[in-house]
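Could you please consider the sequence and fold appended to this message?
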Amino acid sequence: MVNPLLTRSINSDSAPTSVIQPESLGALGFREKHGIRYAYLSGAMYKGIASASLVIRMAKAGLLGYFGTGGLRVEQIEEAILKIQQALGSGEVFGMNLLCNLIKPEYEDATVDVFFQHGVHRIEAAAYTQITSSLVRYRLFNATLGPDNSVLVPNHVLAKISRPEIAAQFLSPPPERIVQKLLAAGKITPQQASLAPRISMADDICVEADSGGHTDNGVAYTLMPVMLRMRDEAIVKHGYDQPIFVGAAGGIGTPHAVAASFIMGADFVLTGSINQCTVEAGTSDLAKELLAAANVQDTEMAPAGDMFEIGAKVQVLSKGLFFPARAAKLYELYKRFESLDEIDAKTREQLETRYFKRTFEQIFEETREYYQKLAPEQILRAEKNPKAKMALIFRWYFVHSTRLALKGELEGKLDFQIHCGPALGSFNQWVRGTPLEDWRNRHSDEIGELLMKGAAELLNRRFRQFVGLPYSEDSGNQLRR
């Protein structure tokens, strides 16, 4: 049965002859390549927040979603793949996230092995500052020549980027030194190595503006024109056989943002934060309640736990939460002191009783137990270097705060770390006063349907305005009609 919220026809009496349909937004080639109805994707969110259930729901609706592998063990990633594949038919598509891991490249390589083992042909490459051998191996695997001598590349890479210098790497062929290293190791064939100069590292580039989690707080209006021009120049320069599609992400929470993205030339759009507040999202109900109450101003930049020592930041939900301020305090202490022993007694008591609710010693023992198998070198370094030990203990808080939010532990609510961008606040305002104000009525595929239909309606109404036909200012919100 069709959800009545998703049905809204355009007034044919006043519509121009060529009516924009949601299916016509974006690039036809992009939709055909992935076999999807709309040029609309749901992006990965770490720790499986972009869950198997979310990806399955998208696929069954004829859309494409990416599972969030960040922070998960390889075994958990494999379990998710099997769950998704068992739920889907042969014609439905899905993707998996692949995170850059320069510290432990063997983990990235093991993840790629699992992708090969289970026939995963679509990945979302994220957090890359440089091209890695694992990514090149994935991209070139099973590349071959077609009957017309064109290059056929079965493994699709969508690269999430926010900086031109990173985009340039993904718009280029695989680095020759990496190709030769893989060839020498027998990880790619001579034919695949010979085809590498004709293959771009990514066939889809997703330009990420102001988003949740790690973000450069970019502005889509300035980023998109630059990336589109870079794409066009790269295709001419390298003479690629296949097109490279450029999409928009970050800040997309309403039909207006979707429409603006397509007007700027985006071949597709990708949403993130708004899908975290759906039934399918792999986080707690309590976290979803907080997210559903967020407005556009209720996010803040805070230190990032995974790159704590270098001062990297993530965008998180701030309304009613202490995490942003406490995380900033920890980073300030780390910058000021060389060891835990230098911290004054009053501050130490505040950290142990209010922030951590356990002693430094207890945290270190817990951390030692965790890292003993995964990364024993971290413990050895901490035992020799007091500042490294302080960083390890402080980073524990970031892992703990994420775990609290995912589990929905009420007693730890003030310390929830929830990655989120202002797009969610925009979406919440758009659906206010409708059934979708309650997150329990939100589903990732239906949100995509609403945004794409709303964007098409909005563009049709604006077109009427531009050509002098009657139009309504109250456009793009079919929820209320």
